[in-house]
Amino acid sequence: MSMTRSFETFSRRDLFRIAAASLGGISCSPWLPKLARAAGTKRPPKACILLWMAGGPSQMETLDPKPGHRNGGPTQAISTAVPGIELSQNLPGLATQMKDVALVRSMKTREGDHGRATQLMMTGYRPMGGMTDYPVLGSLISHRLKPADSPLPGFVSIAPFRFGNLGSGFLGPDHSPLVVSGASNDPNTRANLTVENLEVAGGNPDALLERQGLLNMLRQGAPSSSPAALKHASVYDQAMRMVETRGEGAFELDEEPTELRDAYGRNRFGQGCLLARRLVERGVPFVEVSLDAAAQGSWDSHVDNFSAVSSMCEVLDPAWSTLLKDLRDRGLLDSTLVVWMGEFGRTPQINPNRGRDHFPDAWSVALAGGSIAGGQVYGKTSADGMEVSDNPVTASDLYATLLEGLGIDSGGDNAMGNRPIPLVDEGGTPIRELLG
Amino acid sequence: MNKPAVLLMLLTVAVVWRPGTTFADSQGDTLSQWIDQRGEQIWGKPPAPCSDLTFVRRVYLDLVGRVPSVSEIRDFQTLGEDRRELLVNELVFGEGPRRDTYTRLSASSLARHWRRVLIPPGAVVTGSAQGLETWLADAFREGKPYDEMMREITQIQSPDAAGGYYRLVGGTPETYAGNLSRVMLGVRLDCAQCHDHPFTDWKQHDFWGLAAFYSDINGSIDNPDGSRPTGKSGEIRFEGETYRAKVLWEDTPLDDVTRAPRVRLARWMTSPKNPNFAATAVNRFWQLLVGRGLYADIENLDLANEDERAFLDDLGQKFSEDGFHVQRLIAAICKTNWYAARAMSETDSDETFRRELKVISPEQVFDSLEQSLHLPISRIDPAAPRWTGARAQMVNRLGEAIGETPEDYASGIPQALMMMNGPVTSDAIDLDRSRLLRAVVESPFFDEDKRIETLYLAVLTREPSEAEKQSLTEYLDNKPDETTRRKAFGEILWALLNSPEFVLCR
C-alpha cells in the first residue's frame, strides 16, 4: 500500500482492506496529516477559532482601558505594535501581535443575565423561550465549512464552560460539538486534553475491526429506509474513524516542541489553544476554547475585579498571543479567524467590593486573522465607558462580520424543515471597515 | 373561531361540568376499539402487526422505561390468547405480583417524559428540574387526572408551586405564558412577544394578554427589558403599553380582571370546550407511544386544518369525557392495532400511517443497560452504577443531543464514543467483570447456540435470525482457541449494545 496516497481519498472499504492486509495495522499506520498534503499547492481551508471567555471579561482591564478616569481604576494602558492603539497592561503579549488584531470597542447588546447573554452571543439570536432551537456559532460554521470526507468532526469544543445548554440546534447531530474535556489544570500534566472514550473498549485496537464486522451484520436487520437508522450508521461511522485514526493524531500534544508548549502556557487553556491549532491544521473548521476561571478568580469579577482579571490574563495573554504567532508562522492566519469574546462586559463603575458587575451596554471583542483587517480599532466608548459613543455593534452585526470574514454570505439562510432561518438575525450588517 | 360566547360563559361559571367516572371502560378497551375503527376510516386497514417479542420490548420501554428481563419475557410467553392486553394492564394499572415496581416505574417514566415536554431540551433552565419531576411523578402515581395537573400548573400562587415550574423556565410572566400555551395548547406565541406573528394571526395583545395573568406573582425575576407589573392583578406593562388579561381566541380582555385571574385562566385552559387543550394532550400521548403525533407538528397545532385535526379532536373529546384519565388513555392506545403495527411497513391504502423506529431516551438507555447487563442496583452496593454517578454521567452525555420527536435520532460522535468505549460498555464486555457475560459464557447448561440466543434476548428482546446464527457460528469457529472463543462473546455483546436496534425501538 502506497503511503503517498492521502488518507482523505480512502473510502471505508479501503480502510478495511488496509487494516486487514496489514494485520492489526490500525495502531501503527502512519496516517498522513493533512498538513503535509496541504503544504504543496492547496490553500489551507477557512477555519475559525473562538476563544470563549465565559463569565464576561472586563473591557477596561483588557481591550478598552480608561487610565486617568475614576471608572478606569488602577489599570494602566500600554502601547502596542500599532502606534496609537493602546491595550491594558494585562495584555503585553497581545500588544506585540496588534498588527493582526482588530478591536471592536463598541459592542452594544441587551442581555445582562449570563444564560440569556450566552445564548445571544453563542447563537446570534436573542433567547425567545424555546421558539426555535438555534445552533451555536460552531455548528453554523461546521455546517458551512466541514469537509465531507474528514475523519474529524466539523466542530470541536475544548474544555467547554458555558452558562446554558446550547448545541447544534436544528442543524442536528452532524454539527454538534465533539467535546474535549480537560479535567485537570495541573501545569505539570498534559492538562488532560483528551477526547473522552477514544480508547477502544477492552484496550485492544485490533478488536475494532471485528466489532465493525459484527455491527455490519446486525445493521442488516435494521430497516434501511429508516432515517433514524441511517443517522445512527453515519454517526457510528464517523466515531469509528475517529477511533481508528486516533483523531488523526491531533491530540498528541507531546509531539510539539517543549518551548512552544511552554509559550502557550502549561495550563488547560494554553494547551487547548495549541490543540486548536493542531485541529485546524487537520481540517477542522471550528474550534472553541473556553476560559472561565484561573488560579485567582474568574471573568465574573463581581469582587476584586482587578486582581481577578490580572490573574485571568496571565493565562489568557501568553496563549492568545502565541496562537496568533504560531498560526502566522505556519501560514494559517490568513485562513483562520480568531475571535475573542465573552457574553458581555463589566460595569464601568467600580462597586463597593472593588468589583465590576454585568454590563451589556458598551463592551469589547477582538478579531484577528481570516479576512479581518488587523491593526485597527472599530467603535468607541465615552470617556467614562458608560456608553458607546461611536459605531455601535450588535450581536447580529458581529455575526454578519464573522461569517463574511470566513467567506460565508451573511445574508444566507439555513433550513429548518421547510422553513428558512436566516444565518444572522434580522438587522445584522457586516462591518466593512473590519473586512480587508 | 366562533366560540366566544361559550368561552366567556365558561370563565364565569364556577363549577365545570365533569362527566362521572362511571364510564364502563375501566381499562381502556372500549376506547381502544374506537381508535381502531376511527383509524381505519382515515388510514385504511392497519399494517401487519409486530411480533410478540417486539410488542413486549415496546411496552416495557414505553410504559416502565426499560427493556424486559429474560424472565419477564418468559412470563409473558406463558400468558394465554390475550397476553398483549394482559401485559398492558399489568404495566399500566399494576395488576399482578409486581404491582409496586411497575406502578413506581411507570410513574417516573411518565414524569421524565413530561418534564421534557414542560422544559424542552436546549431550553435555558434556572436551577434543577428534579423538584418538577418529583411533582409530576407523584401526580401520575396518584392517578391525578390530566386536566387537574394542568390546572395546578396554571393557577399557581407562587413561583415554587407545581414543582417550581414558573421559576425553572425563567421566572417571568412572559416566559411562563409562552410555555403554557406551547405545552397545553400546542400554540407557539413567543414570536408575538415583540411583534405580531409572521405566519399565523397571533398579535402582541394575545401574548401579553396571557402574560398578564401572571403579573402579580411575587418573586418574579426582574428582567430590565422585560415586562413590568402595574400594581394591579391581571394587568401588565411592556414597552410602554398596558395589556389586560385576555385568553386566546378572544378579542376582548376579561372584565373585572383583578378577580382571581389565574383561577379563571385555569378553568378556561382545561375546559372541554377549549378547542386545543384535550387535542394537544392526546396528541402528546400518541406521539410518546406511537412516535409521531396524530398531527405531527404538535406545537403548531394552530397551523392544522380541519381535516388534519379531525381524529385528534374526536380522541380529545373521548379523553375529556373519560375524565382525562391518563392511565386509561395510555392503555387504550397501547391496545390498538396502530400501536402494534410492524415498524416501517405501510397501510394498504397509502402512506398516511407509518410506524417508524423510535429513539429511546437517555434514561431508557441506561435503565435498559442496567437490566440487560444485570448491573448491581442496590443503594448500598459500591459498584452499582446507578448510585456511583455513572447513570448521571451517561444520561447527561446522551441528554446533550435529544431529537425533537421520538423518531429523530440526534446523538452525535461524543454519544457514539461513549456507547462504544465508555466505562459501562468496557465493563460489560469484560469476562472478569460482566455479570451477564459470566452468566452466559460460564453456564454449564448452555451450548453455544443457547449462549448467543440468551445474549440476543437480554439485549435486543429477540432471537437471532438464521443468517445471524450462521454468521456468528462461523465467527466463533474462526477463533483459534478456547480463550479467544470465550472472549469473542464479549465482542458479540459489544455489537449488540452498539447496534441500531438497541437505541432504536423497532
From TrEMBL, chain A:
Species per Swiss-Prot/TrEMBL record: Stieleria magnilauensis
PROSITE patterns per record: PROKAR_LIPOPROTEIN, TAT
Protein name: DUF1501 domain-containing protein
PANTHER family, per the entry: BLL7424 PROTEIN, DUF1501 DOMAIN-CONTAINING PROTEIN
InterPro entries: Alkaline_phosphatase_core_sf, DUF1501, TAT_signal
Matches recorded under Pfam families: DUF1501
UniProtKB/TrEMBL annotation, chain B:
Domain of life: Bacteria
Residue ranges annotated for the DUF1549 domain, each copy included: 33-217
Pfam families documented for this protein: PSCyt2, PSD1
Keyword terms of this UniProt record: Signal
Every DUF1553 domain range: 262-348
Stretch forming the signal peptide: 1-24
Protein name: DUF1553 domain-containing protein
Native species: Stieleria magnilauensis
